[in-house]
Design goal:
Helix content: under 10%
Radius of gyration: 21 Å
Number of strands: 18
Strand content: 25-35%
Oligomer: single chain
Number of helices: 2
Number of domains: 2
Largest sheet: 5 strands, mixed
Length: about 290
């Protein structure tokens, strides 16, 4: 008689979400061995604090995960919500026709000359590697988009939607600075360029461009370059400035609109060749006083 051995079933693991001082409840999440899955989006709140992600250690010294990040789990674990006190951010009134107010520094920076963090379009946290394989809204390649896709040829299994402007949950300015702040639209970028005097300068040893409005007020955008592939290298820093908008380029499935300028000529314009997966700078705007 031939003995038939039992089938080996994959292990399952449990992720427990801890509010770490916040309020609310979140159900435990079950993961299957070797299967990637997106973490449940945070629903905890903490009055006076902003949620910044998850960590395997309460104090934040362990492994960090972003909200909704896709991960593979190999053991039961607890994820602790990470909180920070929102920073008061400054803005400048440039006298623009729309009344749009531009921030004085980039997301991730504490001064106008600091480069700050770099963001793929639709992502709200910096990361270690910038390419299609790590891009949040695709399935590993440029032809597998899973959000903000209007052409079925580039959507995963023919996916399309009608979204051409970032939702608040995918806006790096809103996610990092809080309600009231957001990434500028392409029209707001055009307004900035059309209504300001723009010159290339070196400010506190940092290259960039100063945008001066009709009322004499100005902002400085450093030439922070961009990031492709490994985060340890920044391309074109001190030479190019590339800043993200919240607007998707309507005739290029891989691109979003942005501001582009360089030290090599006097042009400062709107660029449609800003690959979604690349790490670019974000300069927030607000529509009213914060």
């Amino acid at each position: 008689m031939i003995a038939i051995s039992g089938c080996n079933r994959p292990e399952t693991y449990t992720v427990i979400f801890n509010s770490n001082g916040g309020t609310g409840t979140m159900a435990d999440q079950t993961f299957t061995e070797d299967e990637a899955q997106a973490l449940t989006r945070n629903t905890f709140t903490y009055e006076g604090y902003t949620f910044t992600g998850w960590n395997t250690v309460q104090g934040g010294s362990g492994t960090s995960y972003t909200d909704g990040q896709t991960i593979t789990v190999t053991a039961d674990m607890t994820l602790y919500a990470q909180w920070t006190v929102p920073q008061r951010h400054e803005y400048v009134d440039l006298g623009l026709p729309s009344g749009t107010l531009w921030a004085t520094c980039n997301v991730g920076a504490n001064a106008p000359e600091e480069f700050g963090d770099y963001f793929a379009w639709g992502e709200t946290a910096p990361k270690e590697f910038y390419d299609w394989s790590s891009y949040k809204y695709c399935n590993g390649s440029e032809n597998t988009l899973t959000k903000y896709c209007y052409d079925a040829h580039f959507g995963y299994n023919g996916f399309t939607d009608t979204l051409n402007t970032l939702e608040a949950t995918d806006d790096a300015a809103t996610a990092n600075w809080g309600a009231g702040w957001r990434m500028p639209t392409v029209d707001e970028m055009r307004e900035l360029i059309d209504n300001c005097t723009i010159i290339w300068i070196t400010q506190n040893d940092v290259n960039g461009r100063v945008f001066t409005g009709s009322n004499g007020n100005s902002i400085f955008l450093p030439a922070a370059g961009c990031r492709f592939d490994d985060v340890s290298s920044t391309d074109y820093a001190g030479i190019y400035g590339l800043y993200r908008s919240s607007s998707l380029y309507p005739r290029g499935a891989f691109d979003a609109w942005g501001i582009a300028f360089s030290s090599q000529n006097d042009d400062c314009g709107i660029d449609n060749d800003c690959y979604r997966y690349a790490g670019l700078s974000v300069r927030p705007v607000c529509s009213s006083l914060n």
